[in-house]
Every structure is written in structure tokens, then in C-alpha cells.
Amino acid sequence: MTGMLGHGRRRVARLAIAAAAANTVIGLLVVPASGAAAATPQVTTVSTAYVAPLQLAVRGGRILVTDRGRLSELGRVGVLATGPRFGDLTGVAYDADGSGYAYTSSTPDHADTRLTIVAADGTRVTASLSGFERSTNPDRRISYGVDRPSACVRKAFKALDGGPASYTGRVDSHPVAVANAGAVWFVADAAANAVLRVDAVGEVRLVNVLPRQAFRFSPRLAQGLGLPSCVDGVTYRAEAVPTDVELGPDGNLYVTTRPGLYDLGQGGSLYRMNPRNGREVRIAGGFAGAGDLAVTSTGAVFVAEALTGHIEAVRSSGRHSTYLTLPGLAGLEADDGHLYASVSAPVSEGVRTGPGRVVRIG
């Protein structure tokens, strides 16, 4: 989902620490989970009919794919849905039995964001997520940025990107992922910094706002950005930008986030969240651009790193290691004992050199 999130309300250019290295990798690189040799996961290409496949929904052999603002089902002729002009259609999920599905969409300015639920008979219910954000703004009382910034720090941030050193949550919505739990759908809204609950008739409620992400400006980073020494050691409490949400077999939600300021390669987190009361526990961190995640029927959790192309296997201790690397990795799902991933078309010197793919792993 890289490039699709709007990384919180602070629109600052990210530092691409891992991007250059990731773009030079060719083929598949498997990294064992420990020092011992590990079996290479089998990777099978399921389809090459895409350019920039983003998210997947997989259920019983059926696969939905979002690609450049369009939703299609693998093996089915035609497009199921199209996002707003110059906007996006990003998140998608099947319902429990695979007969219906839901998808998220957003206009370019995020003024109109929706979850559309499609029943087996084609009946559609649309929930206005942007309307919910405008009426409630769940993080309106949360303070982001630098606590009690000095005049020097305020001036430095103003010069950096024109924004304030500290602010409270503003109205913005950009849904990027959805998960099903029977008659209820859960949405990761990246710009609202929240997980939302949508019922079968389209009523939207808040599950919870994700915790602020603390980020410390090292002297080296401050210098690299041309910031004065008063920023050295300053802690910036960034918005938590949820990038995916999945329902685990334990009944809990699993949510990945990135900090809404700079994605320097190690700021991504994984949370477990109680869907009834919204209480969350951070169970892992240090992901290089945490994107999609997959939770298997046995409770195993995998996280896709957008900056490295790594699929990280997460242990119960929170430690994680690279299971597989797929350059161009975007979406990640689990079904029927396999992982499924979407991979963007490879590009060399601005020219596409191959197709985007959907692959099955294991």
C-alpha cells in the first residue's frame, strides 16, 4: 500500500532508506528464521493479469484483487467496481462464506470515503466513513507532535513543511483495509488513525483510535533535514496510521500501523485489539514500513514490509524474522493453509519490465 496512505495529516517527504536496496533485488530471496537452513517456501504465480495489484481477498479458491482503483475477481471477466476518478479503491474482503464482499473507496481529497458492502444477491449497502469522521472526529482531543515545543522548535517545523510542531487531531478519512466478522465489518482508516466498525445496514461506530507513535529526532537526522540543534533529541508523537486490519481465530483484531511523520524503516507496529472494547496491546514493532498482514487459521501472524519486500513471521514473543522476500510486495492474505501475496510490476529506469502478479506461497 505504499504511496496510498497519505501518512497522517503531516505531509512531509519520507526518507527512502530501504527503497534503493529493495529495487535492486531480482527474483526471490529466502532468509531462514534462524541460523539453521530453512526450507524454501514454494512460490506459485496464480495470475499475471495486473500492473499494480494492491490488496487481496481470498476465500476457498476465489480471489478478489484491487488494482489501480479497480476491483476484479480472478478468473472472472470484467470489473466488479471502480473507485472515484483520480481517487482509489483499496481495501477488500470477502464475508465469512465468500458469497459477499466489501471494499473501501476514497475521492482524491478524502472528502467522500466509503465502505461498500455487496451481498450475495448483489444488494449494496454504503457506509459513509467521511461522514462519520466529520461528525465525530474521534482523535480531536489527542495532541500530536512535540509536547510543549520551544519557540525554536516551532519555527523549525514551520520551516520544514509549513506545519505546526504540535496540533490536535483534525478531520480526515482514508480507509485502506477491511476485515469481516459475520454481519460486522472492521475498517482501518489510515487518515482517521482509527479502526471503525460497520454493521450490515451501514451504521459506523468507533472501535478505537490507535496510540500515538513516539519518534525521537537524533542529531544526525535533524542535521540531515537541515533542522537547528534545538530539535536534537526532541520526541515527536506522531499519528498512528493503520495500514491493515484482520480478524484472528482468537476473535481479536490484528492491526498494523506506521508513524504519520517519517517512515524511516523501523517505525511500523503490530497491535492486537479487542473488537468489543477497543483495548489494544502492541505485540511487535520495528517493521520497515508495516503494510498488509495475514493471520492464519492456526493464529500465525505474518506482516508485509513495504520498504523491503519482506514477509515477516511474528512469534508470540513479538520477535519477528524474514520468512520470504518478494520485491514489489503489496498485499498479503492467508487461506487454506497458504499465504497469498500481490506483487507490483517490476520497473527499471521508469520502464515496466514485467507484469504485476498474484502468487501463492507454501
What does this 3D model show about the protein?
- The chain is mainly β and 362 residues long.
- It has a single domain (19-361), classed as TolB, C-terminal domain (Neuraminidase).
- Helix content is 8%, strand content 45%.
- It contains 4 helices and 30 strands.
- The chain has helices at 19-23, 129-136, 151-161, 219-224, and strands at residues 43-50, 53-59, 62-67, 70-73, 81-82, 88-94, 101-106, 113-118, 124-128, 143-145, 166-168, 175-181, 184-189, 194-198, 204-209, 213-216, 235-238, 240-247, 253-259, 268-273, 280-287, 290-295, 301-305, 310-314, 320-325, 329-335, 338-343, 347-348, 351-352, 356-361.
- It has a 4-stranded antiparallel sheet, with no helix packed on it. The protein has a 4-stranded antiparallel sheet with strand order 2-3-4-5, with no helix packed on it.
- Strand 2 (53-59) and strand 3 (62-67) form a beta hairpin.
- It is globular, with a radius of gyration of 20 Å.
Sequence-ordered SSE layout with sheet pairings:
Layout: H1 19-23, E1 43-50, E2 53-59, E3 62-67, E4 70-73, E5 81-82, E6 88-94, E7 101-106, E8 113-118, E9 124-128, H2 129-136, E10 143-145, H3 151-161, E11 166-168, E12 175-181, E13 184-189, E14 194-198, E15 204-209, E16 213-216, H4 219-224, E17 235-238, E18 240-247, E19 253-259, E20 268-273, E21 280-287, E22 290-295, E23 301-305, E24 310-314, E25 320-325, E26 329-335, E27 338-343, E28 347-348, E29 351-352, E30 356-361
Antiparallel strand pairs: 1-30, 2-3, 3-4, 4-5, 6-7, 7-8, 8-9, 10-11, 12-13, 13-14, 14-15, 16-17, 18-19, 19-20, 20-21, 22-23, 23-24, 24-25, 26-27, 27-30, 28-29
